[in-house]
Amino acid sequence: MAIGSAVSTGRRAAPETAPGIPQAGPFAGHLHLDETITPVVRTDFDVAAYAKRGTDRITVDSSQRAADGPLPAEMRTTLGVLHRLEASALAESRAMLATSTGHEARITAFLATWLVERFWQSRALRDVLAGDRAAGVADTADTSEHRSALHPLHALRRVHVDRVQPLLSPLWGIVTGEGVTAGHMARMAIQEASLQAALVAVSRQVDGEAQRAIDLVAERHGAAVDFFTAEAIARITRSRGEAASARAVLALSSPLHGGGLADAQLLTALRVIGADARDRAALRRARFEITRLLPGPDLPGRLPFPRPLKGA
Question: In this structure, are residues 257 and 267 in contact, taking their beta carbons and an 8 Å threshold?
């Protein structure tokens, strides 16, 4: 007995023929994209190749590092700040993935490898600092002394980031919608470019094994700078709403505050990093590449140097 239903016979129903609906291919008869849905952003960055490339540990020769002698105190402080900023990747990704940014397949695929890279980059800077232990120099990468230097308001900020922000992030995403992704990409583009510029500046002030390791860390930032910058510019330039969202995200917290927490020793580190005029210019360019495309003025307090340095 023949059954006329297309479903019961296993035959596919004929696709609808309304204007705009595909008539061929795997999605025939279904309208999956129209003008009410934001198109998926695709840049020239090859995420698949980046993920397949993988990453590995940046080894530091501890015996050679110890033989090179201890680093100056201010340089150790600076490397400690950069180490902690590198290590903030997990907190940054949590803030991103708790919103609509987590629905972006290309971004989440990139973050999976990027998180591992940032871990090894952070570990390499810590290993450089650890080389001073043989000379009896205390480790300043992440000590109780650093934590006690935090202002009480910073301690409250830490509670906010750790306990409150995970609850508020979904609400923030509801208010800004998909535009918040532009803000996240802008923040990370500035953070990655600033880290790379800072590492290049620091590398010129050290030598030996420390310089070799820092150069490798700076080089590995290249892919992340390219990805986040391309994603940010593509979103910022396609709509005013996303540009406004990016400005709002950058106004909330400086990209140099890893995970939204200001480092108590950041100002000291910036003075070491910006000792040369070309390095101060490089840090400013890291931010200006994005902020030049955003509406409204860029707040001076959000610049890499909170106040003009002498001779800047």
Answer: no
> Does the pLDDT value for residue 76 go beyond 80?
yes
Residue 43 above 50 pLDDT? yes
Q: What is the pTM of this model?
A: 0.79
Higher-confidence residue of 55 and 156: namely 55
- Rg of the chain over CA atoms, in angstroms? 24
- Judge whether residue 82 has pLDDT over 90: yes
Report yes or no: 260 and 291 within 8 Å, Cβ to Cβ. no
Give CA–CA dist 129/137, Å, rounded. 9
The residue among 83, 89, 96 whose CA lies nearest residue 114 is: 89
Give the CB-side neighbour count of residue 216, counting CA atoms within 13 A: 20
Comparing CA positions, the residue from 201, 191, 223, 221 lying closest to residue 88 is: 191
Q: What pLDDT score was predicted for residue 135?
A: 47
For residues 199 and 214, the answer to whether their CB atoms sit within 8 Å is yes
CB atoms within 10 A of CB 40: 9
Cβ of 61: how many Cβ atoms within 10 Å? 15
| Token pair in block for residue 140 | 């300043």
Domains by residue range for the chain, with CATH: 63-302 (1.10.620)
- Indicate the range of 89-93, 132-136, 227-231 predicted with least confidence: 132-136
d(CA 88, CA 90): 6
Instruction: Judge whether 21 and 84 are in contact, CB under 8 Å.
Output: no
- Return all residues near 12 (Cβ < 8 A) that are at least 6 apart: 6
Helix axes 266-273, 73-86, angle to 10 degrees: 110
Tell me whether residue 189 is exposed, middle or buried, using C-beta atoms within 10 angstroms of its C-beta: 0 to 12, 13 to 18, 19 or more: buried
